[in-house]
Amino acid sequence: MTHTFVGMPPFPTAARAALADTQLRHNLAHATATIRGKRARVVDEVENWEELRLAGAAVKDRALRGLDEHLVQLEESLTARGATVHWARDADEANQVVIEVAQRHGVDEVVKVKSMVTQEIGLNEALQAEGIAAWETDLAELIVQLGGDLPSHILVPAIHRNRAEIRDIFRRRMGEVGRAAPADLTDEPAVLAAAARAHLREKFLRARMAVSGANFAVADTGTLVVVESEGNGRMCLTLPEVLVSVVGIEKVVPSWAELDPLLRLLPRSSTGERMNPYTSTWSGVTPGDGPQEVHVVLLDNGRTRALADDVGRQALRCIRCSACLNVCPVYERVGGHAYGSVYPGPIGAILNPLLKGTGDPQTDSLPYASTLCGACFEACPVLIDIPEVLVHLRSKVVDGHREDRVPKPEAVAMKSAAWTFSRGGRLRLAERLTGVGVGVGRRLGASRWTSARDLPKAPPESFRAWWRRTDGRLDP
């Protein structure tokens, strides 16, 4: 049974459960530290790294400012090269396009390139409901799928698993859905990779239809781009007869020249490599070479909502490198599942509310899933100021509750403070009662706050009382 994120609890509840899993914390700490180290070494090689970040951000901003024109140009360029372009307002419309193409060709299985956007729309589940199996071919995605699990990282979806757990999943599940794992399978990485390669090879050779996303879409040439490290993407993009690519509308860039800084930023920020081993590009249909029927689904699904937010739209610069996850102290301790979304970590904490809007308790909890330390902003290759957007989204969550019939304790506390501070007499009375108030607070309203921090003791004397006693002199 394939799982989805529907029904996940708010972040504080999910995080509390994750913190109790010591094996999870060990796996995350080891993996994120390794990725951080690799990234730091290759970034240090680039003398003008900050200028490159500025260039990447500028490319994405220019693309977003003229998004309407660039998307029309992309459609014209793709159509001229033999592709069929579909526009999807939401997940249901996008899934329906893929289902109809599969049914028209009579296929009961598809192979997939790793794709965040198809996870976002729940494509695998939609296909499964129609009797069509969707096989993930990225190694980490394969581990997640075979384990009946959920992805927990943008780049390394199985980052929460260790080698022994992966070996057990392969032994238990591979034979149920295809070629079985060798009986003598060990937990050596090379051995595990070989087992996955053999298991997937028969699926690549058999499949008549593939589904992909795209890292970028070049408007002036109608070119889609996928970068990956294993070669599974190349197999999916070249072997099947039919290819359907589901692409978020924010992935567009105007020209090949403007793709240059992004292709230098992405591999260093994601896998800690100077360049990706496989960079695949395709534009429509070429007779006798590759898929002979190509469909491109341009997906909104909340992106225009995010674009309309003056502060939040910078999140649409995201190139899905996951650098922010790997430096985040919160993510490192609770993992990706606690965020309740296909987009975890700092970028998920802003992207999910921007795409979905506020009002849902789980989504509303995400902007608070941060210490606001700023490490994510320092790591982001396209300069998304994630802390700024987090604070902005917190204000939207608070504003959304202003009309609640029963105000939240936080709102009551803030209104009480405003009433007290607005008059000197009230403040003087409050100062006299400070000690009592702190004691009561420890037992009542502040109990949740103080469960993770110390509530300071009340000072023995207020500033006003000290001033009256000393006339402001430091040595009375």
Automatic annotation (TrEMBL):
Q: Which stretches make up the LUD domain?
A: 73-299
User: What Pfam families does the record point to?
Assistant: Fer4_8, LUD_dom, LutB_C
Alphabetic keyword roster: 4Fe-4S, Electron transport, Iron, Iron-sulfur, Metal-binding, Repeat, Transport
- The UniProt record lists the 4Fe-4S ferredoxin-type domain at 315-382
Q: Which GO terms describe its molecular function?
A: 4 iron, 4 sulfur cluster binding; metal ion binding
- Please name the GO terms of the biological process aspect recorded for this protein, alphabetically: lactate metabolic process
In Swiss-Prot or TrEMBL terms, this protein is called: Iron-sulfur cluster-binding protein
Organism, as annotated: Nocardioides immobilis
* Lineage per the UniProt record: Bacteria, Bacillati, Actinomycetota, Actinomycetes, Propionibacteriales
